[in-house]
Design a protein that fits this description.
By secondary structure, the chain is of the alpha/beta class. It is built from 11 helices and 11 strands. A 6-stranded mixed sheet has the order 2-1-3-10-4-11, with helices on both faces. A 5-stranded mixed sheet has the order 7-6-8-5-9. The longest helix has 22 residues.
Length: about 325
């Protein structure tokens, strides 16, 4: 009887807090620098959420260690719903690469709120490259193990892991060449000093149109309207490659009450349902994808399992 009474009191308190939520400004933490796709998408959604919730949503960039600094800051924040994080591929991958030394659990230490979008990529090679298709790259990698190279913005990032996935699926050995950012990596691909790379869709279409680059494949389920003549990875002999597309989402610290989570989820969904928001995200190369908290949690679990297999098979390390 006493236990039931205590549970009832706790539920009443939780409901009262949810009814008053939010009563002050909220914080959206982004683990990357201002101006990148994650930051821009986060700020668009934050602006919409502020309108829905009736309180400012302040975006704070906590950069460093491939998103780890921001992740740990949100992990230790109070579980009141006022602080949340925009997650990327690194939310799972950082924990996987740290293995036994990991400083957080991507699921146990966080409350999932919603998916936001997926960020597909384009596999590109230099305009003068001998490669005209993905099968061309695979054939060369099989004929000359280790000679075919792929660029990225650094170890453990989306471009690195996409290249590692390609090598794993095709049982080939390719050389990863990390750079300090996507731009210098792309410069080397254009010059022909690096064989190819996977690049975010944003900002690359013009260079393909002007024939400074060849687009070999897109990592979308169907052909992308911005690249109508470019085959998907599945059409190129890599079925299921699109399942590894990076997803962005929103999480808070573990323990946020269900009513507060529902309010935050509704605010995110409202943002993503706006035609103008959808159009702006499309211009950033994003595929809008709202979800329930439970759907996002299930997706995170599956995504971690997928990348764990790739990281192990390809021998990917944090260094």
């Amino acid at each position: 009887m006493k236990r039931a009474l205590l549970i009832g009191i706790a539920l009443c308190i939780s409901c009262a807090q949810a009814q008053d939520f939010p009563a002050k400004p909220l914080r959206m933490v982004i683990g990357y620098a201002a101006g990148g796709p994650t930051d821009v998408i986060g700020r668009i959604v934050a602006q919409d959420m502020a309108a829905s919730l009736g309180q400012p949503v302040v975006v704070e960039n906590r950069t460093g260690a491939n998103g780890l600094i921001g992740t740990l800051e949100v992990k230790k924040a109070p579980a009141d719903g006022y602080t949340f994080l925009v997650t990327t591929l690194s939310h799972n991958v950082n924990a996987l690469l740290m293995a036994d030394k990991k400083s957080y659990d991507p699921l146990a230490d966080f409350t999932t709120i919603s998916l936001l979008a997926f960020l597909p990529m384009v596999m590109v090679a230099g305009a003068d490259s001998p490669f005209a298709s993905v099968p061309d790259v695979i054939a060369a990698a099989k004929a000359r193990p280790g000679e075919i190279s792929y660029g990225s913005a650094g170890n453990g990032g989306s471009a690195h892991l996409a290249g590692a996935l390609l090598a794993t699926l095709t049982n080939t050995r390719m050389t990863h060449v990390p750079f300090r950012g996507n731009a210098p990596a792309l410069t080397e691909v254009m010059a022909g000093r690096v064989s190819f790379m996977f690049y975010p869709m944003i900002g690359i279409a013009e260079q393909v149109r002007e024939k400074r680059l060849k687009a070999l494949a897109v990592t979308t389920e169907k052909r992308h309207p911005d690249y109508p003549g470019v085959p998907t990875t599945a059409e190129s002999g890599l079925p299921g490659f699109e399942d590894y597309t990076q997803g962005l989402g929103v999480v808070g610290p573990a323990g946020i009450s269900a009513p507060v989570v529902q309010k935050l989820n509704a605010a995110v969904r409202s943002s993503l349902a706006k035609p103008e928001t959808g159009q702006r995200l499309k211009q950033l190369g994003a595929l809008v994808h709202a979800s329930s908290p439970e759907e996002f949690r299930a997706w995170l679990r599956q995504d971690a399992e997928r990348w764990a297999r790739v990281i192990k098979a390809a021998g990917v390390t944090a260094d």
